[in-house]
């Protein structure tokens, strides 16, 4: 088993950042050919999604849809920090993803990539990758 720590700085209030390549680098370092990778965020306002990588408008539309359904400015939110929208969006995405490793690579569909989703930026963020052979 291998554990890798990643730090990144988001630049916008809401942002989706492709992190597939960093996971592939971790996988290459580990030397594991078959198993799983668990990717986990230590934050309650940032998570992960697997989605389309071909058209950047998909990421735009996803962020638009999240904001439309869970607006940043809503006077009915009661959380004192003012980021309830980010907690809700993260609950929808989830704080982790599990990826299948097969023949030394991530088993993805042709249009898929893994994205780190920050809904309360800009911030310094940390996520972990646990690679398990099996």
TrEMBL record:
Name the source organism.
Answer: Zhenpiania hominis
**InterPro entries recorded for this chain?**
UPF0047_YjbQ-like, YjbQ-like_sf
In Swiss-Prot or TrEMBL terms, this protein is called YjbQ family protein
Q: Which family does it belong to?
A: Belongs to the UPF0047 family.
Recorded hits in SUPFAM superfamilies, A to Z, give: YjbQ-like
- Supply the source organism's classification: Bacteria, Bacillati, Bacillota, Clostridia, Peptostreptococcales
According to the lineage, what is the superkingdom?
Answer: Bacteria
What Pfam families does the database record attribute to this sequence?
YjbQ
């Amino acid at each position: 088993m291998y554990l890798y720590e990643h730090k990144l700085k988001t630049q916008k209030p809401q942002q989706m950042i492709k992190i597939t390549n960093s996971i592939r680098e971790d996988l290459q370092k580990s030397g594991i050919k078959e198993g799983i990778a668990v990717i986990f965020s230590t934050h309650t306002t940032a998570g992960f999604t697997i989605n389309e990588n071909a058209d950047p408008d998909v990421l735009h539309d996803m962020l638009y849809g999240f904001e439309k359904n869970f607006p940043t400015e809503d006077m009915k939110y009661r959380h004192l920090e003012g980021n309830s929208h980010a907690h809700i969006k993260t609950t929808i995405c989830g704080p982790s993803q599990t990826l299948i490793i097969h023949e030394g690579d991530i088993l993805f569909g042709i249009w898929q990539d893994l994205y780190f989703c920050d809904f309360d930026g800009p911030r310094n963020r940390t996520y972990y990758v646990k690679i398990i052979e099996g």
